[in-house]
Design brief:
The protein is mainly beta and 171 residues long. Helices cover 13% and strands 43% of the residues. It has an 8-stranded antiparallel barrel. A hairpin with an 8-residue loop joins strand 6 (115-125) and strand 7 (134-142). The protein is globular, with a radius of gyration of 21 Å.
Length: 171
């Protein structure tokens, strides 16, 4: 009887796609350098929040941690040279020219095949409204490039979307 059940179960599974083992799915755990950051407005207009050559780094660790940093490399330095002694205008420019957060992440699916979904569970952010939220991204891995896209960003207009392209820092 047990042998018959094993054969029947095997036959039933034969027509079903078997998901790849976790060890067969390419890992996104790595250090990534920012290539581009695009914001798509509800009307379809595409802008580059920190220009066409932004700076940035994304780190995914093997144990599920994420750290994201984006910046406008043309931000002016503080005249005083001291972190806590910027003028109101300097502090505003510094804040508006930098974006970052950290937390944990989960990856579902295979970003090198049909695509995966990576969710950033934000624990702390330069933008306080992101702290405690999940940022859900479609992830596509092609060679040394990782593209993250979101259909909606909880910290922006309800219909704005983002496309961020990263390249492995070691490449």
């Amino acid at each position: 009887m047990k042998g018959w059940l094993a054969v029947a179960a095997g036959a039933a599974l034969a027509g079903s796609p078997i998901p790849p083992k976790a060890s067969e799915v390419p890992s996104i755990a790595d250090s990534w350098r920012l290539v581009s950051w695009e914001r798509r407005a509800p009307g379809g207009e595409t802008t580059h929040p920190f220009g066409h050559a932004p700076g940035g780094q994304l780190i995914y660790t093997a144990d599920g941690r994420v750290s994201v940093h984006l910046l406008d490399p043309s931000r002016p330095a503080f005249a005083s040279g001291a972190f806590l002694e910027g003028t109101d205008d300097e502090v505003r420019d510094a804040f508006e020219g930098y974006f970052g957060y950290f937390g944990s992440y989960t990856l579902e699916g295979d970003p090198s095949a049909e695509g995966g979904v990576v969710t950033h569970h934000v624990e702390g952010s330069a933008f306080p409204n992101y702290t405690g939220i999940d940022r859900v991204w479609t992830a596509t891995l092609r060679g040394p490039r990782l593209t993250l896209e979101t259909a909606r960003d909880p910290g922006d207009s309800p219909d704005a979307s983002y496309r961020v392209v990263w390249e492995q820092a070691s490449h």
